[in-house]
Specification:
Blueprint lengths: L6 H14 L18 E5 L6 E8 L2 E5 L6 H10 L5 E5 L11 E3 L31 E4 L14 E6 L6 E8 L6 E2 L6 H10 L5 E5 L11 E4 L16 E2 L11 E4 L14 H4 L2
Parallel strand pairs: 3-5, 9-11
Antiparallel strand pairs: 1-2, 2-3, 2-6, 4-6, 7-8, 8-13, 10-13, 11-12
The protein binds calcium ion (CA) (2 copies).
Length: 275
Amino acid sequence: MYTAMEPTLFLMLIAEVLQDIGSVSALSTTATPPTPGLSLRLAGTYNYCEGRVEVYYKGAWGTVCGNNWDIKDAEVVCQQLGCGNAVEALSWPKFGSGSGKIVLSDVQCKGDEFFLWDCKNPGWEVHNCNHEQDATVLCTDEKYKPAGTEGDVVFMQLVGGPNRCAGRVEVTFFANWRKEVCSEGWDIRDAQVVCNELYCGTALSALSDGSFGKGDSGPLMTHVDCSGSEDYLLSCPYEYRPATCGNYNDAAVICSDSGLTPTGMPDFGSSTIFA
Ligand SMILES: [Ca+2]
Ligand SMILES: [Ca+2]
């Protein structure tokens, strides 16, 4: 059945498709955002992308039982962590057993979920397992573990600029290697929250023209919609887009404490120079 579509709706759909051309997986824009309080890591090795699967749940790290653990489950883990593809899914703790609670078991991923806990499973802490069955994953990538990360810790910085108060916005959400913020809907109110959060004064400009370069991690956030009074950028409404920014540049900010003018030129303080 094909009913007449509103012309405007049709044009919007075309625009959306055109915008996403060039990045196949960018069509998956309906992903649920990272859940505060939940996190994922691979433990027991130096490598962020290889180890015993651990989930941060109710304020503590727990393990995942290897019952029915397979390569599709491992694929979701690797993708969620930004670690490439799954190489191996093990139902035993090759890199050592975990301790603490076993928080997930009998995980049945289709393989395209964005978060391990979105895969079908019997429920939190429902299992009949011990730590000799700790699920373990090896991914294609090799990365050193980020320092000082636990739970849903978020770290934000401005990169590519002359100092810490101007640059491309980079947000690190633990258990998600992606850091970029797409400039779709990026405006001065969003920039103000960034400047506040970094103690950099007032926002002089919200840049969406590719100033300060481009990151290569892939985006964490897009369509950021701050009112300007939020304390943290992640307190603002936003959409989670794990694939790409499409044709959008990375969001960037110039705060007053950077010493730059709103256009990015150094501010020599014209009134004193020409006095
Ligand atoms: Ca499975
Ligand atoms: Ca906005």
